[in-house]
Amino acid sequence: MERVSLDHVHSRLLPRGWGVGILVGLVVSAVSVVVPDRGLLEVVNKAGTRGDYFEVFSPFWPGVVVGALLVGVSVAGWLLQRSRPAVLAAGAATAATVTGGAWLSTLVHLASQGSWIEGRPCRHDDGRLDLPAQSGATATLSPVVAYWREAARHEASSVGTFEVLADRLTSFGANEDLAVRCWRAADDERRHATLCTAIAEGLNGGPIGDLDAEWRPSSQVAEDSLERLATEAFVHGAIGEAFSAAILRAGAGSAAPELEVLIRSLANDEDEHAELAKDTIRWCLARGDERVHLALSAAMDAVAEEPHYPSLLVGVVIDDLRVGGLLSESETVDLWRIVRQESINFLRSELAKTS
Questions:
Q1: 8-17, 136-145, 232-241 — most confident range
Q2: Using an 8 Å Cβ cutoff, are 344 and 269 in contact?
């Protein structure tokens, strides 16, 4: 089966369309010079004039040429950038048809959104989060406290993700090490839910409400496959958890000393979970067929250039963010771009090894 990948389109044409824009600009420039000097002057002369207007305006032709070049670049870049969502959607649809799963379109969409989420919470097939309820009103909390309270819900849900993932990997014949690491990650997430709650209560100076201790995930994996395992590992693990580790580590240094230790502990565990995701991808690529390549390529092509900054933190003053061990929007964008490129480089390398 021939591999369908949008990577070369995305990396070379879609971001700005400079190559095509320059080509258009050069063509326009050549016409601007050649036509006035030869074709158009000849036409004008035949019409009974001497072409005096062109002689008068000849000093301005370099400006016309440069302007045409810039206009060509801008227009081509704008057109190609506008076409990117449609191209990515078409690629995802093609990959979903080949892999036989609508889940891929959901994962591609999530990748294109640049989601910032703590842990790896359970999701329904349509991408909606499956989270435990929590008592207490969020409206009475500061945005930073509310953020950490929500993070505790994400981490608690992630316990279910890793427990199910261990069983899924085992059912596909994965080596025991991957399953054991999943169970260990589930234990990490239980601790993370407790740590995030402790951080929120420390910042709040008191209780923030309790998580539903009886909660169990209602989401089910309806269509499972190696390509789905691999793509989830890339979107939610190699990128998602690696990004989470990066922002936690970067924010820890400005937090209160008693919180810094807790946040760094979270970051270290998220790093390990990102490595687990990468090893899962490697195993799926070695065990699977061309459909694994196709699904991973579709997700890689769609990864957002910027993260979705949590709405809870929009407008919060920088000093409050710092105390809570959190980053500004511009800082998260910078970190996202680093993690994004590292994750894409990793995947490209792994795809090349198994081509």
A1: 232-241
A2: no
Q: What is the DSSP string of 6-49?
A: -HHHHHHTTTT-HHHHHHHHHHHHHHHHHIIIIIIHHHHHHTT-
Q: Which of 131, 148, 21 is nearest to 75 (CA)?
A: 21
Average pLDDT in the 227-252 region? 95
Residue 12: CB partners within 8 Å, gap ≥ 6?
A: 19
Q: Which CATH number fits domain 100-353: 3.40.50, 3.90.660, 1.20.1260, 1.10.287?
A: 1.20.1260
Residue 211 phi/psi, 5° resolution? -75, 150
Alpha-carbon distances of 106 from 111, 126, 169, rounded to whole Å: 9, 6, 21
For the ranges 111-125, 268-282, 315-329, the lowest mean pLDDT is seen at 111-125
DSSP string, 245-303: HHHHHHHHTTS-HHHHHHHHHHHHHHHHHHHHHHHHHHHHHHHS-HHHHHHHHHHHHH-
Chain mean position to CA 208: 31
Q: Which residues contact 187 (CB under 8 A, 6 or more apart)?
A: none
Confidence grade of residue 92 (pLDDT, cut at 50, 70, 90)? very low
- pLDDT score for 27: 58
Residue 211 bridge partners (DSSP) = 134
Closest alpha carbon to 161 in 188, 134, 135: 188
What is the Cα gyration radius of the chain? 26
Q: What is the pLDDT of residues 150-174, one digit of tens each?
A: 999 999 999 999 999 999 999 999 9
Is this model's pTM higher than 0.85 or not? no
Beta carbons of 252 and 263 less than 8 angstroms apart:
yes
Reported as a single tens digit per residue, the pLDDT across 185-195 is 999 999 999 99
Q: Can you give the residue ranges of every domain in the chain?
A: 7-83, 100-353
How many Cα atoms are found within 13 Å in the side-chain-facing hemisphere of 102?
5
Q: What is the pLDDT of residue 63?
A: 57
181: number of Cβ within 10 Å: 20
Question: What confidence category does residue 70 fall into, taking pLDDT thresholds of 50, 70 and 90?
Answer: low
